[in-house]
Specification:
The complex is a heterodimer. Chain A has three domains: 17-26 and 458-583, 2-Layer Sandwich (Aldehyde Oxidoreductase, domain 4), CATH 3.30.365.10; 31-126 and 200-260, Aldehyde Oxidoreductase, domain 3 (Alpha-Beta Complex), CATH 3.90.1170; 281-449 and 595-750, Aldehyde oxidase/xanthine dehydrogenase, molybdopterin binding domain (Aldehyde Oxidoreductase, domain 4), CATH 3.30.365. Chain A contains 20 helices and 28 strands. In chain A, the strands form seven sheets. In chain A, strands 3-5-1-12-9-10-11 form a seven-stranded mixed β-sheet, sandwiched between helices. In chain A, helix 14 packs parallel to helix 15 (523-544) and helix 17 packs across helix 19 (716-728). Chain B starts with 6 loop residues before the first strand and ends with a helix. Chain B is elongated and about 50 Å long. Chain B is of the alpha+beta class. Chains A and B meet through helix 1 and helix 17 of A and helix 2, helix 3, helix 4 and helix 5 of B. The complex binds FE2/S2 (inorganic) cluster (2 copies). The site of one FE2/S2 (inorganic) cluster (FES) has 12 residues of chain B, from loops.
C-alpha cells in the first residue's frame, strides 16, 4: 500500500507505529546496561528550611551504596536554564517540599528503597509562602528582593483616559488550579559518566539540548564531553521539557561517583509530587464597553504561581500575557503580569504554557460582559473580533486572512448551538439535571515568542547515502505528536521520494544539530519548514552538479527512486558527503520590541471556536460533558489523523483541567500524588470530540501549516464553564469545577 | 533474603513454557519485564489504575502490577509481544496503526490487549461496550476517539 504523492494532507502510517503497536519500541525503562545500578532521591520533607544534618540509619550497610550530596558535584551546583537559581541538590537551604538533597545508588532496587527511607534530613523550618496573594504581599521574602521572578507590562492606546468613554464597566476575578501533565510513562534517565569519557545520558525527554545545556556546567566539562540521547518517550505535554535535566543530572552524578551506569526512574507518586505542573493563576479583569457592546478599555492583571525557583516561569508568563486579551480588537489595553515565588515545587511547562490560564479568565469574563450589555455571548464576541488588518493587544497587525465570525458560525452549525441553547433554556427550569451549551473563541501563537526563534537559530540537516536513503537530522523529538511522520512527509514530498526511503535520525546531541526544543507548537511549523528547506537544498545540490534531483529528472518529471539513488551514489563518489543544512531565518517584516512588549509576537496564529455541551446534576453535583465541537483554522493540515488526534487529546486534557484534575496542596506539597485520587478523564468520561479544520495556508509554514499542538488546551475549560453557567445560572470563576465548587456556586444561586 | 526463599514458577508465556525463580511477592510485571525481558508490558502507575501493565492471564485481562507472580504459576499468559503472528499484525494492531490509536505508545500495549480481549468476548461491541471495555486503560495522548475508531475498524476487519 503505497500512498501517492503528495503525502502532505494524507494519513500515512505513523513512522514508528509498528514498533509501538507490537511492544517493540524501547522506552528508557526498557533499556538495560551491563553492571547497571539503580538510583533513588532523598527529598526535602519541609517546604522551607535550613538543613542541619543528614542522618543515615546505621542498620543499612552504607558501604554497599553510592551516596551523593551537593559536595560531590564537580562543577556548578545548578540546573542551568534561564537563570542558575535552582540547585541540582540542595546544600544548605531547601525551598520546597520534595526538593532533592541526597542521591543513593545500589544494584538492588528493593534495598535501595529501604535505604531511601532510612535517610533522615534534620531541618530547621523557615517561614514559607504558599499562595499568590501572600507572595505578592511579601508576607515573607523567599526569592530575590520581592518574590517576583518576572513581570511584564503591555500598553496599547490610553486605558486611563478611556474609562471616561466606557458606558458599562465590568470587573471579575478568575482562578485556575495546578494541573499534572500525567504522561503515562513516568520520567526516567540512564547515565554513563566518568572523567575519561565524559557524560552520556539516555532518557525520556522533549529537549535533548536543554539537558545538554544543564549537564555542561554541572560537571564543568566541555560541550563535546556531554552527550544526550532521547529514548522513545511516553508522552510529554511540556512535563518533559525542563525537569528531565534534573533527573539526568542526578543519574549522571551517581554514575560519575559509582563508576557504573545508573538508571533513575521515578515511580508515579514521585513523578507527581516532585516534578513540574501547570502554573496556578489568578487574573483580574476590568473591562469598559459602550452600551452597544464595543470594547473601549481592557485592563488585565495576570499573576501565576511559579513555585520555588524561576525555571521557565518568565516564558510561561510571557505567553500567558500575550494571549490574555484574546482574538479581539480593543483600542486601549493594559496588561500587567507577574510570576511570583511560593514554596512549592517549581511549576513548569504544560501544553498551552500560560495561555490556558489567561484564556480561561478572558472567555469567562466576556460572557459576563456580554450579559452586562444585554447581548448574547456570540453577538458580543462578533462585535469585537479582530479582523485582517486589525491589531491585537501587543499592537501586532494581523496580516492573516482570519475570519472568526465564520469559524464561530461553523462551530454553531456543527453543534446546533442556537437551537440547543433555546431548548435548554426552556427545559431546564424544573429539571434536576440541567443542560447547558457554551463556547470559547481564542487564538494560539505558534513558535517561540517575539525574537525567540531568531535567538534559537535552529538548524536542521538532511543527508543522503549512496544507497539513496535520506536521513533527517534534528533534535526535535517524537513524543507521540507525530514529528517523525510529519518530517517524513515533508522530506518525501520535497524530494519526490517514497516515504520508506526517509529515515529520521534518533535525537542524539552527538549526531544531530540543535533544531531547538520540542515545545511551543513549533515542531511542524518552524522545524518542519527547516526540514523542507534542507531537503530542497539537497535537491539543488544534486541538480546543480548536473544530476537529477526531484523534478530535475528528465523532462522535469519527478525522478524515480532508482534515478535518485544513482544520482546520490555518483555525487558521493565525486564530491564526498551529500548533506544540506538549513538555519532558521525569520519571515520578512517580523518586528518585535522586547522592552515595550509590542510587535509581532508570533509569526502565525491558529484560530479556534470550541463549543461544549454539558449536563449538571443539581443533586449529586456531577457534571458531564455530552458533546464537544472543536473548529479551528490551522493553515494546512499535514496529516489529518495526527492533527485530529492532537486536537482530541488536547480537548480531553482540557476537560480534565476544567472538571476533574484537582491538585490538593498542603504546605506546598501535593497530597494526592496518585492516579487513584488525582483523576484524569477515562474512556467512559469523554464526550464525542468532533474536530473540524479550516485551511488557510500560511506562506512560511511547510506546505502552509501552522502549529497546533497547544491550541486545543486553551478552549475547553472556558467553554465548559460557560455551558455550566447556561445550565445553572451559576457564575463559576475558578477551575477545576469539582462537586464542592459547584455546590458552593449553586447555593449562591438559590440563596 | 537468601535466594532459597525464591519460589519456582512455571507458566506459559505467548505460547512457550518458562520456569523462573522469583520472590513470592514479586509482581508479575517485574518477572515479565526483568526475568523474561518482555518489556512491551509497561508500568504507568504500579497501583492498578492505568492499565499500561495489562496482560491476558488465562484469557482474562489483568493488571500485572497487581498480580503476584506466584498467581501465574501454571497459567497461560499473553503479553503484547504475543499478539501478532510473526510479522502479521493482529487486526487490532493494524487498526491502531492506521487509525491513530497509538500516539506516544506507552498505553498502547495494554490498550491493544484490552481491545483484543473485548473483541473476543464481544465481537460486535456497541460504543458503550467499547467505552466500558477500555475504561481501565488510561491514555493521556489521544482523548480516546482514535482508539474507539481503531476498535470499530478492527471489528469490521475481523468480520
Ligand atoms: S502499572 Fe499496572 S495499572 Fe498502572
Ligand atoms: S498514546 Fe500516549 S498515553 Fe496513550
Amino acid at each position: 500500500m503505497h500512498p501517492e504523492p503528495p503525502l502532505i494532507g494524507q494519513a500515512v502510517p505513523r513512522k514508528e507505529g509498528r514498533d509501538k503497536v507490537t511492544g517493540r519500541a524501547r522506552y528508557v525503562d526498557d533499556l538495560v546496561f551491563p553492571g547497571m545500578m539503580y538510583g533513588a532521591t532523598v527529598r526535602s520533607p519541609v517546604a522551607r528550611g535550613r538543613i542541619r544534618a543528614i542522618h543515615f540509619d546505621e542498620n543499612i550497610p552504607w558501604q554497599e551504596f553510592t551516596v551523593v550530596t551537593a559536595q560531590d558535584i564537580p562543577g556548578e551546583n545548578c540546573v542551568a536554564l534561564i537563570l542558575h537559581d535552582q540547585p541540582c541538590l540542595a546544600a544548605e537551604i531547601v525551598n520546597h517540599p520534595e526538593e532533592p538533597v541526597v542521591l543513593l545508588g545500589h544494584p538492588d532496587k528493593h534495598l535501595l528503597e529501604e535505604a531511601r527511607r532510612a535517610v533522615r534530613l534534620e531541618t530547621e523550618p523557615l517561614p514559607a509562602v504558599f499562595t499568590i496573594e501572600d507572595s505578592l504581599a511579601k508576607k515573607e521574602i523567599i526569592w530575590g528582593e520581592d518574590n517576583v521572578f518576572k513581570s511584564f507590562l503591555v500598553e496599547k492606546g490610553d486605558v486611563d483616559s478611556a474609562w471616561a468613554r466606557a458606558e458599562i464597566v465590568v470587573e471579575g476575578e478568575y482562578e485556575t488550579g495546578a494541573q499534572e501533565q500525567l504522561y503515562i510513562e513516568p520520567n526516567g534517565m540512564i547515565a554513563v559518566a566518568n572523567p575519561d569519557e565524559g557524560v552520556t545520558v539516555w532518557g525520556s525527554m522533549q529537549c535533548p539540548y536543554y539537558v545538554h545545556k544543564a549537564l555542561v556546567p554541572l560537571f564543568g566539562l566541555s560541550k563535546d564531553k556531554v552527550r544526550v540521547i532521547q529514548a522513545e518517550t511516553g508522552g510529554g505535554f511540556g512535563g518533559k521539557e525542563e525537569y528531565p535535566s534534573m533527573i539526568a543530572a542526578h543519574a549522571a552524578l551517581l554514575a560519575w561517583k559509582a563508576g557504573r551506569p545508573v538508571k533513575l526512574i521515578y515511580d508515579r507518586a514521585e513523578d507527581m509530587a516532585a516534578t513540574t505542573k501547570r502554573h496556578p493563576s489568578r487574573t483580574r479583569h476590568r473591562t469598559g464597553v459602550t452600551r452597544d457592546g464595543k470594547l473601549v478599555a481592557l485592563e488585565i492583571d495576570f499573576v501565576i504561581d511559579g513555585g520555588a525557583y524561576c525555571t521557565l516561569s518568565p516564558v510561561v508568563l510571557s505567553r500567558g500575557t500575550i494571549h490574555a486579551a484574546g482574538p479581539y480588537e480593543c483600542p486601549n489595553v493594559r496588561i500587567r503580569s507577574r510570576a511570583v515565588a511560593t514554596n512549592a515545587p517549581p511549576h513548569g511547562a504544560f501544553r498551552g504554557f500560560g495561555a490556558p490560564q489567561s484564556v480561561f479568565a478572558l472567555e469567562r469574563h466576556f460572557d459576563q460582559v456580554a450579559k452586562a450589555c444585554g447581548l448574547a455571548p456570540d453577538e458580543f464576541r462578533r462585535r469585537n473580533f479582530v479582523h485582517a488588518g486589525g491589531t491585537l493587544a501587543v499592537s501586532q497587525v494581523i496580516h492573516e486572512n482570519v475570519d472568526l465570525p465564520q469559524l464561530m458560525e461553523r462551530a454553531f452549525a456543527e453543534s446546533d448551538y442556537h437551537a440547543k441553547r433555546a431548548r435548554f433554556a426552556r427545559e431546564n427550569r424544573d429539571a434536576r439535571v440541567k443542560k447547558g451549551i457554551g463556547f470559547a473563541a481564542f487564538l494560539h501563537g505558534a513558535g517561540f515568542t517575539g525574537s525567540g526563534e531568531e535567538y534559537l537559530a535552529s538548524v536542521v540537516a538532511v543527508e543522503a547515502t549512496a544507497e539513496g536513503r535520506v536521513r533527517v537530522l534534528a533534535a526535535s523529538t517524537e513524543i507521540g505528536q507525530g514529528a517523525n511522520t510529519v518530517f517524513t512527509q515533508i522530506a518525501a514530498d520535497t524530494l519526490g521520494l517514497d516515504p520508506e526511503l526517509i529515515d529520521i535520525a534518533p535525537p542524539d546531541t552527538a549526531a544531530v544539530p540543535n533544531s531547538g526544543p520540542t515545545v511551543a507548537s513549533r515542531t511542524t511549523m518552524i522545524v518542519g519548514k527547516l526540514v523542507e528547506s534542507a531537503a530542497l537544498g539537497l535537491k539543488q545540490t544534486l541538480v546543480s552538479s548536473g544530476l537529477p534531483g526531484e523534478r530535475g529528472g528528465p523532462e522535469g518529471r519527478p525522478c524515480t527512486s532508482e534515478e535518485f539513488q544513482r544520482a546520490c551514489a555518483e555525487y558521493i563518489r565525486k564530491h564526498g558527503a551529500l548533506r544540506a543544512t538549513c538555519q532558521y531565518a525569520p519571515p520578512p517584516g517580523i518586528k518585535w520590541d522586547d522592552e515595550k512588549y509590542q510587535g509581532d509576537a508570533y509569526g502565525a496564529y491558529a484560530w479556534a471556536v470550541y463549543v461544549a455541551e454539558v449536563s449538571v446534576d443539581t443533586v449529586t453535583y456531577e457534571i458531564r460533558v455530552d458533546d464537544f465541537v472543536a473548529v479551528q483554522e490551522v493553515g494546512k493540515v499535514i496529516h489529518p489523523v495526527l492533527a485530529t488526534g492532537q486536537i482530541e487529546g488536547g480537548v480531553a486534557q482540557g476537560i480534565g483541567y476544567a472538571l476533574y484534575e484537582n491538585v490538593v496542596w498542603r504546605e506546598g506539597r501535593m497530597v494526592n500524588a496518585q492516579m487513584t485520587n488525582y483523576i484524569m478523564p477515562t474512556s467512559a468520561d469523554v464526550p464525542p470530540i468532533r474536530v473540524f479544520f479550516e485551511e488557510n495556508p500560511y506562506p512560511f509554514g511547510p506546505g502552509g501549516a501552522k502549529g497546533i499542538g497547544e491550541l486545543p488546551m486553551d478552549g475547553p475549560a472556558p467553554a465548559i464553564v460557560n455551558a455550566i453557567e447556561q445550565a445553572t445560572g451559576a457564575s463559576i470563576t475558578r477551575i477545576p469545577v469539582t462537586p464542592e465548587v459547584l455546590m458552593e456556586a449553586l447555593e449562591g444561586v438559590h440563596a | 533474603m537468601p535466594d532459597a526463599a525464591k519460589v519456582r514458577i512455571a507458566f506459559r508465556v505467548n505460547g512457550s513454557e518458562h520456569i523462573v525463580h522469583a520472590w513470592p511477592m514479586a509482581r508479575l510485571l517485574d518477572v515479565l519485564r526483568e526475568e523474561l525481558r518482555l518489556t512491551g508490558t509497561k508500568e504507568g502507575c504500579g497501583e492498578g489504575e492505568c492499565g499500561a501493565c495489562a496482560v491476558l492471564l488465562d484469557g482474562a485481562l489483568v493488571n500485572s502490577c497487581l498480580v503476584p507472580a506466584l498467581h501465574a504459576d501454571g497459567a497461560s499468559i499473553i503479553t503484547i509481544e504475543g499478539v501478532a503472528q510473526g510479522e502479521q499484525l493482529h487486526a487490532v494492531q493494524q487498526a491502531f496503526l492506521e487509525h491513530g490509536g497509538a500516539q506516544c505508545g506507552i498505553c498502547t500495549p495494554g490498550m491493544v490487549l484490552a481491545a483484543v480481549n473485548l473483541l473476543e468476548k464481544c465481537p460486535n461491541p456497541t460504543e458503550a461496550d467499547i467505552r466500558n471495555g477500555l475504561a481501565g486503560n488510561l491514555c493521556r495522548c489521544t482523548g480516546y476517539m482514535k482508539i474507539f475508531e481503531s476498535v470499530v475498524a478492527a471489528c469490521k476487519q475481523q468480520r
